[in-house]
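Bumping my old thread because nobody answered last time. Still need a sequence for this structure:
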């Protein structure tokens, strides 16, 4: 009979497969969002964006529950990825129109390098990263609070770069933590594992893009 460690190690390919599906669905969300935003520009109101941001937070926070519910879990997962694509579309459009379309590719490459390096560390290290859990969650809660404040009290370029840099560090650390968790802890569904990686990558990517955009404005 296989040990839990061996069983969980085989979940890594599944997690990355689900992660790839989420990325593809977010790309579909971006594609269709362009036409939707052009047809209904009022959908980008501060209230709408804040409501969508809050919905995604609730969906992510409750993922441990719905990720094991079939088939509803698959529907919620797909909806999360599609809505994420919609949410990041204004940032992609702004960066592309300000700095040129090539900046999207550069940000994707940088995010892939950071994400990949962190994933390798999490998979290969013998150090127990479970001790990071409380610190990382505290960082996420603080980041959420600052992000909500940013909707009402926009910060300047230097502060935005600082927050984005902190976000990159936080979610690269989370990537290593999550990879080790997926590898070692029994009971994580493939859907949940892939969602964790997707959330980490999207936050790294968008934060890199925000830094490039903020520096490009100066």
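Sorry it took so long. Here it is:
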């Amino acid at each position: 009979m296989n040990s839990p460690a061996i069983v969980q190690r085989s979940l890594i390919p599944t997690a990355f497969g689900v992660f790839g599906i989420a990325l593809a669905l977010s790309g579909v969300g971006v594609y269709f969002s362009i036409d939707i935003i052009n047809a209904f520009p009022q959908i980008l109101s501060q209230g709408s964006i804040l409501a969508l941001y809050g919905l995604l937070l609730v969906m992510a926070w409750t993922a441990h529950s719905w990720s094991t519910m079939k088939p509803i879990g698959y529907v919620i997962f797909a909806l999360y990825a599609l809505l994420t694509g919609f949410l990041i579309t204004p940032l992609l459009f702004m960066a592309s129109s300000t700095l040129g379309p090539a900046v999207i590719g550069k940000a994707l490459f940088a995010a892939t390098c950071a994400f990949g390096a962190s994933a390798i560390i999490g998979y290969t290290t013998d150090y127990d990263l479970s001790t990071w859990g409380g610190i990382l969650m505290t960082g996420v809660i603080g980041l959420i609070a600052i992000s909500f404040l940013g909707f009402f009290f926009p910060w300047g370029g230097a502060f935005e770069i600082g927050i984005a840099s902190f976000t990159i560090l936080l979610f690269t650390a989370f990537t290593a933590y999550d990879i080790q968790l997926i590898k070692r802890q029994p009971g994580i569904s493939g859907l949940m594992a892939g969602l964790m990686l997707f959330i980490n990558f999207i936050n790294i990517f968008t934060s890199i893009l925000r830094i490039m955009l903020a520096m490009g404005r100066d």
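Residues 4-217 form one domain. Let me know if any region looks off to you.
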